[in-house]
Structures are given as C-alpha cells and as structure tokens.
C-alpha cells in the first residue's frame, strides 16, 4: 500500500527539512551558545556616562546610537569614505572592569586594517572610525548593541560595553 503523501514533491521537501532541522537542533550546545535578546540600551548609557565621569574624560564627544567617541588627539586630512581601508592600532577592554580582551600591541603593534562601512568589523568601529582622520587618537565607548550584542565572543561576555583606545595610522 502506497501513501499519496510520499508522491508529492513538497511533502518530501518538508519531511527532509524537518529531519535536517531536528538533527541540527540536537547537535547544538544551547548552554554554550545562548543569545541574550534583552535591551540593554539604558544600562549601557548609564555605564558609559559613569565611566566618563569617573575618569574625568574630556575631548570631543559624539553620541551616536548610544556610542561616545572621545577624540584625545585630532588627526589631519579627510575622514575615510565608505569602503576605504583604514589601518589602526587599538586596545580593546571591557567597561567598567578594564579587562583587556584584545590589542594590536599583543601582536607586535601591527596595525589592523579593514574597510569602513563594509560590515567587516563591529558596528561601533564602522561608526567610530568614520569620524576620525589619519593621526587621530580616540577612545570609542561602544554600547553592547553596537559591539557583539547578546553573543559572548571569546573573553567578551554577552551584552558587554566596550572601550577601544585607537590610533588611525593610515587611510587608503
């Protein structure tokens, strides 16, 4: 006896999707890859404001989507245009703990290069570096939504506010 269900191509396709989806779901380690979907914007804003106040930071502040850019040394020349390559030195740390999670200094001070606005880096970098010129030094205070969001990445916990001390070495 044949079932008419298996003679329909869409039925086979649906069955395959269910099987493959079930296999993938059973392989996923949900305790290691849980995405936090809460809105931390108010908390992040308060953390950044408290950090600025506690460290008596001065310079040019630009609030964009909850991000603060403090230019500690102005650069010269034009700001990068979308898809232009920027080379920079940086140190990334967690706010407010100050724990460093990455640095070009740990790799022989070799500048890191990326295309601005091309989505190759976290959104906070695309926003921050688009405001800087060659020679600029700045502190980028990045709320979690413009960093890694609700995903933990290596030593960076989910929903982390990030600080990057950056220096623009070149724009091409």
Automatic annotation (TrEMBL):
The keyword Iron does not apply. One of its GO terms (molecular function) is peptidyl-prolyl cis-trans isomerase activity. Keywords: Isomerase, Rotamase, Signal. InterPro entries: PPIase_dom_sf, PPIase_FKBP_dom. Pfam families: FKBP_C. Residues 1-25 form the signal peptide. It comes from the Bacteria. It catalyses: [protein]-peptidylproline (omega=180) = [protein]-peptidylproline (omega=0). Its EC number is 5.2.1.8. Residues 83-172 form the PPIase FKBP-type domain. Belongs to the FKBP-type PPIase family. This is Peptidyl-prolyl cis-trans isomerase. The lineage of its organism: Bacteria, Pseudomonadati, Bacteroidota, Cytophagia, Cytophagales.
């Amino acid at each position: 006896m044949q079932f008419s269900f298996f003679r329909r191509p869409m039925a086979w396709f649906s069955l395959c999707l269910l099987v493959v989806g079930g296999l993938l779901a059973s392989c996923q380690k949900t305790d290691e890859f849980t995405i936090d979907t809460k809105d931390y914007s108010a908390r992040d804003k308060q953390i950044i404001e408290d950090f600025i106040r506690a460290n008596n930071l001065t310079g040019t502040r630009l609030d964009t989507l909850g991000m603060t850019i403090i230019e500690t040394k102005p650069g010269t020349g034009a700001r990068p245009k979308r898809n232009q390559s920027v080379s920079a030195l940086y140190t990334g740390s967690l706010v407010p703990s100050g724990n460093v999670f990455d640095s070009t200094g740990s790799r022989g001070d070799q500048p890191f290069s990326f295309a601005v606005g091309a989505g190759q880096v976290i959104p906070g970098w695309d926003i921050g570096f688009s405001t800087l010129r060659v020679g600029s030094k700045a502190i980028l205070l990045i709320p979690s939504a413009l960093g890694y969001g609700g995903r933990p990445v290596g030593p960076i916990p989910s929903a982390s506010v990030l600080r990057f001390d950056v220096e623009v070495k070149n724009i091409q």
